[in-house]
């Protein structure tokens, strides 16, 4: 896994959503609630396998000051991500 240097990207936070953007596109985002439940997480396919999902979840954990709770995935890709993120916790 390559680690993405996020210092060149804009991080926006609005009402339970963190979004990583550059001047051309959205790299990824995570939607969460105040309990630390992650409702949805997306990483642009071009930027996957670079640690962006991990960075997004770290932001949620810092913001909510709670342990991350991942809701059940709705897609096969989400199930795959859930397995890899369980190792992260």
Provide an overview of this structure:
By secondary structure, this protein is of the alpha+beta class. It has one domain (6-88): 3-Layer(aba) Sandwich (Aminopeptidase), CATH 3.40.630. It contains two helices and five strands; from the N terminus they run E-E-E-E-H-E-H. The protein has helices spanning 52-64, 76-88, and strands at residues 10-14, 17-21, 26-32, 37-43, 69-70. Strands 1-2-3-4-5 form a five-stranded mixed beta sheet, with helices on one face. The longest helix has 13 residues, at 52-64.
Describe the main β-sheet briefly. Answer: 5 strands, mixed
> Strand arrangement, largest sheet?
1-2-3-4-5
Distance between the termini: 17 Å
CATH topology: Aminopeptidase
Count of alpha and pi helical runs: 2
Question: Can you tell me the residue ranges where pLDDT is under 50 for at least 5 consecutive residues?
Answer: none
- Would you count the extended β strands for me? 5
Instruction: Kindly report the oligomeric state of this protein.
Output: single chain
When the domains are counted, the total is 1
In one word, what is the shape?
Answer: globular
**Second CATH tier, the architecture:** 3-Layer(aba) Sandwich
Strand content: 25-35%
On the 0 to 100 scale, the average pLDDT is 82
């Amino acid at each position: 896994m390559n680690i993405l240097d996020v210092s060149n990207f804009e991080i926006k936070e609005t009402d339970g959503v963190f979004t990583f953007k550059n001047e051309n596109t959205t790299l990824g985002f995570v939607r969460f609630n105040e309990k630390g439940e992650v409702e949805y997480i997306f990483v642009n396919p071009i930027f996957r396998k670079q640690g962006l999902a991990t960075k997004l979840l770290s932001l949620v954990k810092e913001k909510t000051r709670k342990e991350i709770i991942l809701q059940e995935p709705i897609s096969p890709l989400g199930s795959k991500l859930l397995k890899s993120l369980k190792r992260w916790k």
